Amino acid sequence: MASPSPLPRLRRSTLGDDVYETITALIMEHTLAPGDRINIDALARQLEVSATPVREALARLESDGLVRKRALAGYAVSPLLTRAEFMEMFDMRLVLEGAAARWAAARAGTDTKQQILREATDIVAPAPEGADGWPAHAAFTKLDAQFHQLIAGAAGNPLLRDGIARLHAHLHIHRLYFPFAQMGTTAQEHQRIALAIEAGDEQQAETAMHDHLNRARERHLAAFG
Amino acid sequence: MASPSPLPRLRRSTLGDDVYETITALIMEHTLAPGDRINIDALARQLEVSATPVREALARLESDGLVRKRALAGYAVSPLLTRAEFMEMFDMRLVLEGAAARWAAARAGTDTKQQILREATDIVAPAPEGADGWPAHAAFTKLDAQFHQLIAGAAGNPLLRDGIARLHAHLHIHRLYFPFAQMGTTAQEHQRIALAIEAGDEQQAETAMHDHLNRARERHLAAFG
DNA sequence: CTAGGAAATATCCTATAGGATCTGAATATC
DNA sequence: GATATTCAGATCCTATAGGATATTTCCTAG
Fold first, then answer.
1. Strand partners for B37
2. Could you check: is the Cβ of residue B52 within 7 Å of any atom of nucleic acid strand C?
3. Percent with pLDDT over 90 in chain A
4. Would you say residue A131 has pLDDT above 80?
5. The domain B83-224: what is its CATH number?
6. Which residues of B touch A160 (CB under 8 A)?
7. Which of A57, A72, A95 is nearest residue B99 as measured by Cβ atoms?
8. CB pairs under 8 A between A and B
9. Residue B10 clears pLDDT 80, i.e. is over it
10. Which residue ranges does chain A devote to CATH 1.20.120.530?
11. For A66, which residue in chain B has the nearest alpha carbon?
């Protein structure tokens, strides 16, 4: 037997890391709903840890923008976006994801481009068991996020990828409040983006991404009454 | 006497907030240099606080990207950017600050536009006491950052402003390692940006900002050998 | 019934203590 | 001399305790 590859490090995380991930998930799943006060002591009891790692996790989440701190009064989940904030976020998406599409068209390798095309196609048939309504919507939302995340990664700039991820975390929290997606229309929009990226056409990729985002914005605006 | 306006809240921050700001300043001033290990206990002793608010401040700074954590081994100041990272950061600046210039041209009010013009002019005479060399460089760097920050604010999108601020924090850490600025050239570039913004010419504002950033990139590349 | 104040309780924040793990120096082995 | 092992001390992480502050509840006066 040749020399074995080194064993993977068994553990390089702490309780604080676990708590951070747990709280993030609680927020994403709306167990901690937007605007909710976060009771540190109660949460620590539920998680069966002391308040110390909970506080540290919340400090990180504050800088992530997912929670807000009021000194001496504790933390709360960041509220749902106002209509104005929603518009600002889409403006920012236009800037960042437009650039991501452009750079992906310029830089992505063949394998990645094929994967982007596959993801654009997969979105049409998201529900594996003929599910309908909310489960279909959830599956679609997940695939939509994967598609955008894939392009963000394909752009080849970690700062851009992280910036888009931050926006998507906020967007994800809002998914319960958005109207059910129009999957056919979105799929076509995704495919136009993917085809432009595959063709290496930077300008067309950006235009298609802008088109998609602007239409998504209009679709989502119904949630703001 | 009409009803008095409510008195300002006397204090709405905690020791942890103070520690966060102190550590940020230590990093910005290179008292904690890039790559340095951060000894939590020693730092807590120096600051005459317990380790608790220090750990919380570091948790926030981790999410800010200014420090990195290695579980069970503690924190270190994020290292200086590699050449590749520096290039990625400038690509990101082109995207974000290009958009900021465009939006500022479209949205800024007359007062703000005048202020932008003033700041572009002020950068020519940064040293109040005929100082030379490093103090002039420091003063220039500060005014340069103010100019960019002003435009980011004038863009009217808080997400964009925050994104640019994050980039600038990283850039600021590197200022000790960059060549002395060519103030005359930079002033001209700033003025071109400011004039385009004042004129409300979005495209020209973005082009001028791109031009400025690309030239700044070239000037700074000497620091990478 | 409403408003204001006081008291009780809960929560937040920080210091301290202690166990787990890491780091670096000293020592042993080849 | 180079490398591996051991060990002591330092450091990190988390739990606990206690004081400060905020929030909630209760009571009283108008």
1. B76
2. yes
3. 71
4. no
5. 1.20.120.530
6. 88, 91-92, 95
7. A95
8. 77
9. no
10. 83-224
11. B63
Q: Among 2.40.128.270, 3.90.1150.10, 1.10.10.10, 3.40.50.720, name the CATH number for the domain at B15-77.
A: 1.10.10.10
Residue ranges, CATH 1.10.10.10, chain A: 15-77
Structure confidence at residue A6 (pLDDT): 41
- CA–CA gap between residue A177 and residue B129 (Å, rounded): 59
Q: Determine whether the interchain pair B159/A89 forms a contact, defined as Cβ–Cβ distance below 8 Å.
A: yes
The average pLDDT across B141-152 equals 92
> pLDDT digits over A186-202, tens only?
889 999 999 999 999 99
Q: How does pLDDT run across B155-186, given as a tens digit for each residue?
A: 999 999 999 999 999 888 887 777 766 777 88
